[in-house]
Amino acid sequence: MPSDDRRVCDVAAHALASLWPQRYRFKSGGSLFERDEQRIRLYNIWLHTRGKPAIPLPVRPKIVPASSSEMTLALQRVTAARSGSQRDQALAGIERIGQPALPAVLRALREKNYEPPVKSSLESLAARLACIVRHVEAGPGLRELDPKLSRELSEIRGKPLTAGYLGDLLTRVTDRLRDGLTGVRLWAYRDNDGAGFLLTLDVLPGRLGKSMSMTSRGYSEHVTAGTETVCSEEGGGSWVKKAYPHVDFAEFTKGVRKALVSPPLETVLIFAKLTRTE
Question: How does DSSP assign the chain, residue by residue?
Answer without folding.
Answer: --TTS--HHHHHHHHHHHH-TTT----TTS-HHHHHHHHHHHHHHHHHHTT-PPPPPP-----PPPPHHHHHHHHHHHHH-SSHHHHHHHHHHHHHH-GGGHHHHHHHHHH----HHHHHHHHHHHHHHHTBEEEEEE-HHHHHH-HHHHHHHGGGBTSB--HHHHHHHHHHHHTT-BTEEEEEEEEEEE-TTS--EEEEEEEEEE-----SSEEEEEEEEEEEETTEEEEEEEEEEEEETTT--S---HHHHHHHHHHTTS-TTS-EEEEEEEEE--
